[in-house]
């Protein structure tokens, strides 16, 4: 997947910063062996810890199922497993995007209609937890309901800025301002993926 720098896309960088800076400290339950370095003490960056964990689980499964070295290489796509932790977000494929609301990496945009809108038109608060699908704006219904969680975009890590279609010259603009008709046409197309 393509990695997009958080400064270029303009979305909230908190999640990427947290993961890039997160460490795992050596303790009785975090057995990451060689990941801790030559002396086996101290801390390891979370990206490296995740990579070691994935490799260990994968190798265990291969061993349990008697998978040959050649077949392991094929199953791994003839490449090493690499967990990266840059200050970036993955640009995921659009297949099935209609079923993946809320949008942006932090879930701060409730539907496709708002994702294609300038940030000034995006909801600043909405409710999450409702499983009722909104087939028109393509997302979950976001009205208040008993047991719902109020998502506020003014909280740290919850910004809904960036990844924007507008004619304004600012960080995070990924395309030109869409007319209302273009926005609805694009939504109808995205429903088919």
Please describe the structure with a list of short key phrases separated by commas or semicolons.
193 residues; alpha+beta; two-stranded antiparallel sheet; 6 helices; 10 strands; globular
Task: Please provide a brief summary of the model.
This protein has helices at 6-9, 14-21, 46-64, 69-75, 112-115, 180-190; strands spanning 2-5, 23-25, 43-45, 88-91, 125-128, 133-134, 139-140, 149-152, 164-165, 173-175. By secondary structure, the protein is α+β, with helices and mostly antiparallel strands. The chain is globular and about 55 Å long.
What does this protein structure show overall?
- This protein is α+β, with helices and mostly antiparallel strands.
- It has two domains: 2-6 and 12-75, no CATH class; 95-190, no CATH class.
- The chain is built from six helices and ten strands.
- The protein has helices at 6-9, 14-21, 46-64, 69-75, 112-115, 180-190, and strands at residues 2-5, 23-25, 43-45, 88-91, 125-128, 133-134, 139-140, 149-152, 164-165, 173-175.
- Strand 6 (133-134) and strand 7 form a beta hairpin.
Q: Multimeric state of these chains?
A: single chain
> Biggest sheet: strands side by side, in what order?
1-4
- How many domains comprise the coordinates? 2
Mean pLDDT: 87
The coarse overall form would be: globular
Q: Strand tally, please?
A: 10
* Content-based structural category: alpha+beta
Q: What low-confidence regions span 5 or more consecutive residues with pLDDT below 50?
A: none
């Amino acid at each position: 997947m393509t990695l997009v720098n958080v400064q270029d896309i303009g979305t909230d960088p908190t999640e990427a910063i947290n993961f890039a800076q997160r460490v795992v400290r050596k303790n009785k339950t975090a057995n990451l062996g060689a990941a801790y370095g030559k002396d086996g003490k101290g801390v390891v960056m979370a990206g490296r810890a995740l990579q070691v964990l994935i490799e260990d689980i994968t190798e265990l499964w291969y061993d349990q199922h008697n998978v040959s070295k050649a077949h392991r290489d094929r199953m791994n796509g003839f490449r090493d497993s690499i967990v990266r932790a840059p200050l970036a977000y993955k640009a995921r494929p659009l297949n099935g995007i209609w079923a993946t609301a809320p949008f942006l990496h932090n879930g701060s945009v409730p539907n496709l209609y708002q994702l294609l809108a300038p940030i000034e038109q995006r909801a600043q608060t909405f409710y999450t937890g409702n499983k009722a699908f909104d087939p028109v704006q393509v997302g979950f219904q976001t009205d208040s309901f008993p047991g719902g969680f109020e998502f506020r975009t003014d909280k740290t890590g919850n910004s809904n800025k960036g990844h924007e279609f507008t004619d304004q010259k600012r960080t995070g603009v990924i395309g030109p301002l869409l007319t209302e008709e273009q926005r609805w046409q694009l939504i109808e197309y995205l429903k088919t993926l």
